[in-house]
Amino acid sequence: MSAPSSAHTNQTGLKRIVSASMAGTVVEWYDFFLYASAAALVFGTQFFPQTGNALDGIIAGFVTYAVGFVARPLGGIVFGQIGDRLGRKFTLQLTIIMIGVATVLMGCLPTIHQIGYWAPALLVILRFIQGLALGGEWGGAVLLVAEHSPNESRGFWSSWPQAAVPLGNLLATVVLFIMRSTLSQEAFLAWGWRVAFWMSAVVVVVGYMIRKHVQEAPIFEQAKAEVEQTKSISYGVGEVIKKYPRGILTAMGLRFAENILYYIVVSFSIVYLGTLKVDTASILGLLAIAHVCHFIFVPIVGYFADKVGRKPLYIAGAVLGATWGFFAFPMFDTKEPIVILLAIIIGLAFHALMYAGQPAIMAEMFPTRMRYSGVSLGYQVTSIVAGSLAPIIATTILKNTGGYFGINMYLLAACVITLIAALSMRETKGKSLHEVDAEERAAREGDAVTA
Question: How far is the C-alpha of 110 from the C-alpha of 445, rounded, in Å?
Fold first, then answer.
């Protein structure tokens, strides 16, 4: 029989923890996705020189967008170390302030027409800070919930911080939609987009205050005390790479197609539909509806991950995700709003099959003393070669070939990699985090005896 959950947190307390985790995640993904949308809609003309081909400016915007992804693994390493040493709560308070300040300052930046190449340079610096903060955010947000959750429902409860991502994206999309719908093109490009960035200050304050009142999980406090008392054991990135290379590689493989699929569906779709002359406001409106659906899908999948297991749902997501481009782009070509919306919603449903279970899967891979570092490293490193490059690769393929077949093959190859990882991972449904710690402790003591 498995050990009890890391904490028998009552329903009210657990809901408060989920709310605190989600509040900050909404803020940080509002900021992060706001940049993605602005890269497709604004930055190409406002921060980069014009070449005569509109896609060149968009590609340049997506390259700076990718800088945030490059920074995320570094953030995962830095804040993973801090989170394993000082706690999840402190780290989450620090990251939310960092990303909020960077986003507000983006809204204040002069354009390339005003200060020349200093404009994209400053944009890159602020984007790097955004990515650094987000790299530390995810691990802390999901672990704060996972380590408080009962064993039998960890998949469901820890999926809620994941659901906060589409909620943040929805907020960013709605704000941009309102600004784009109520302003002329000239006014939107001149100052309207900046308002969306400045609004980050309000939601950052709200998110910070909510997070201020949560407590660490007892299992973390126990692990921290053990590390302090036993000087021969350690934590952090070096330790997790040495002890759990399989867990890190599996996490990276699971993340690969999920990350690529998401950014093709929600970011590149803006570019593709733009080439079809679909109205920008209409695209943003459709994405807003799709984000609502995604928000609903994620906890539903999290619920079933506790019933049927993490592995079957992930395999289904990888297989179905491989098919998306083959029917979605022809649906986009119809230019019919309902058909376009359906294609986006289906893509996000496939994505949810992989995305919802990730916090539980990754939390159950690593012991508490190095869990923050392990999940952050496995989750964030993949973003460099997955989500950061997906819009760039897809836009470049579209530019060079004029079609989407190459994009479909790119997505198919990514899903094959993730399918292999899903088939090879261990099913951990219902496993106690205390049991994970006990297994690691027994292995460590066995190594000591052998030595």
Answer: 59
Counting beta carbons within 10 angstroms of the beta carbon of residue 195, is it exposed (0 to 12), middle (13 to 18) or buried (19 or more)? middle
Give the pLDDT score at 259.
Answer: 94
First to last CA, the chain: 31
Render pLDDT for 132-171 as a digit per residue (tens, 0 to 9): 888 888 888 888 899 889 999 999 999 999 999 888 888 8
Task: State the alpha helices, DSSP H only, in 51-87.
Answer: 54-86
Residues 145 and 220 sit within 8 Å (Cβ to Cβ) = no
Question: Which of 2-16, 109-123, 273-287, 289-303 is the least confident region?
Answer: 2-16
At 129, list the tokens: 């800070």
- Least confident range from 128-142, 328-342, 422-436: namely 128-142
pLDDT in tens, 53-91: 767 766 776 777 677 777 888 888 888 878 877 777 888
How far apart are alpha carbons 349 and 321 in whole angstroms? Answer: 9
User: Both tokens of residue 273?
Assistant: 């539909």
Rounded (to 5) percent helix, strand, coil in the chain: 80, 0, 20
Q: Is 445 exposed, middle or buried (0-12, 13-18, 19+ CB in 10 A)?
A: exposed
pLDDT grade for 191, boundaries at 50, 70 and 90:
confident
One-letter amino acid for residue 310 of the chain: R
- Indicate the DSSP class of residue 427: P
User: At 231, phi and psi to the nearest 5?
Assistant: -70, -15
Q: How many CB atoms lie within 10 A of CB 426?
A: 13
Q: Which residues of 353-362 are buried (b: 16+ CB within 10 A; e: fewer)?
A: bbbbbbbbbb
8 A C-beta contact, residue 434 and residue 281: no
By the 8 A CB rule, do 256 and 380 touch?
A: no
Picking from 297, 339, 341, 346, the residue whose alpha carbon sits closest to that of residue 325 is 346
Cα–Cα separations (whole angstroms), residue 17 to 21, 140, 149, 214, 356: 6, 12, 10, 6, 18
Q: Which tokens go with 152?
A: 């039998």
For 284, other C-beta atoms within 10 Å of its C-beta total 22
